Structure formats: C-alpha cells, structure tokens
Amino acid sequence: MSTTPPPPEHDRADDFPEAWRALVDDAAIFPPGDADLREALHAYDAHRAEWWAGLVGSFVVRDTDLGSVPAGVPVSVVLTSGAGAIEGVAALAARRGLSLAGLEVAVRDADDPVGNVRRLDAAARAAEVDVPLFVEVPGPATAAWLAAADEVAACDHRLKLRLGHVDHDLVPDAATVAGWIDAALDREVRFKATAGLHRAVRHEPEGGGAHGFLNVLAATAALWEGGSTADAVGLLEQRDGSALTGTDVATARRWFSSFGSCSVTEPLDDLISLGLVDKR
After folding, report:
1. What is the pLDDT of residues 55-101, one digit of tens each?
2. Does residue 63 contact residue 77 with C-beta atoms inside 8 Å?
3. How many distinct structural domains can be found in the chain?
4. Mapping DSSP to helix (H, G, I), strand (E, B) and coil, where does residue 82 land?
5. Does the reported pTM lie above 0.90?
C-alpha cells in the first residue's frame, strides 16, 4: 500500500501556530473510533495535506498491525505484550524503514510496578531504542504509583496518562489527574495523554464527564508555575472555555507533549471556535 508524501517540512513548521504543533496523535483505529487500518492510513495522508497538517503528530498503531504500515508514516507503537515486544518492534521498524516516533506500553504487573518499569527499560536498552518510551502506570497516584514514576524518571523515560475510558465510570476524576500531572512535573518527566481528550474543554457527554485538552494544558502550566493541586483540580473542572484561553501553552507543552485522539478534526474545530487558531 502506498501513501502520499507528507507536506514539505516548512509547511508543518511555519504554517501552523507553534503552540499547537504535533499536539494530536492520530489514534483513529482505537476505541471509540475503531477505524479500519487501511482507511485510517488514507485519512492520515489526507490530514497531512491540509492547511492544519501541523496540528497532527504521529499515527498511533498497535504492534500487531505494524507490518501493515507503509514506510514514511511516523508511527507511535502501542505494545500489546509488554517488554517482550520491544525488541521485535524495533527490529521490524528498522527492517521496513518505518519512521518510529515513540513506543507506548502499560505496566502489567500490579504487584511489582517498579520491577516492571525496570524490565521495560532493560528491554529498550537491549534493543537500542532511541525514541521516547511512554510508560502507562494504571491507578491513582498511590505510593506504589509514585515509586513506579520515580523509576520512569530514573530511566529517563516518559509517562502516559489515560484520561478517558469507554466506560464513563472508569474516567479518572480531576483530583486523580491533577495528582498524576503534579507527580510528573515534580520528577520533571514529560508525558502524553490518551483517551477522551478529543474536545478542548471539560464537558458532559451522555453517560458521564470527559476531560478537555485545554483544561489539561492549563492545569499543567499552573502546577509548573507553583500552583497547588487544588488549583489544578479547579482548572480541570472548568467548563468555560473562555476562562482557559489565557493559558501559557508554551510552558505546558514543555511537559505535556501530545495526546492520542480518534478524531483530529474535533480538536481543530474547538481551537478555531475558541479563537486560538485562525481558520483558513
């Protein structure tokens, strides 16, 4: 399967506001979108030809689908079988000439999260992986979670925060999210987010609440600038988009690098409606 080449690099770098560049990783094949892989790749090509191409970062794919992705597509690979998949993914990406943007993996051993992070690190080093490794540590910021985050920082990796879920009862509340972000910043660890952040502002879809990516940016900036977790909770729960448009996005994005979304046009639409990006 062939793909069209990406737009020239200057188009991505110069023709879209710097604050929002590569903010959204295209996760169209994941729930709730569940797009067909071939169709999602064609759509990704189309996105990269748009005037807002700079908003879109990598294409997020499972390791089990990596062999179906053509060369030239920047991919973030979700590892479905933990540390054992790292060597194979790295080898396959190199063999196929794939542009590997990052690896994403969840801690699977709830009884020994620190040991799990160490095994992931050992596998990444053995495979000589030279791209960011985003580690998802499930659960609230308990002592065990914080210890695992310490190990992620010590190994110079990054965190992945799951902020949504198809089951609304499992969406983490604002206090949990604020605790995660505060812990990441305390360790000076960059993080990306996944699930549920396709809209800019906190809202209440049918069945439960959903976080907004602008809320997360605002909370990140506030915490980095010395605000309390209570301040962050308030920002995460803010439903008025106009109250968030003054966020120091550049500061926030120093730490909050991107988020995966099954839609890349909904984030764009919200940025335009809030006056943060000019429509062309």
Report:
1. 999 999 999 999 999 998 999 999 999 899 999 999 999 999 899 99
2. yes
3. 1
4. helix
5. yes
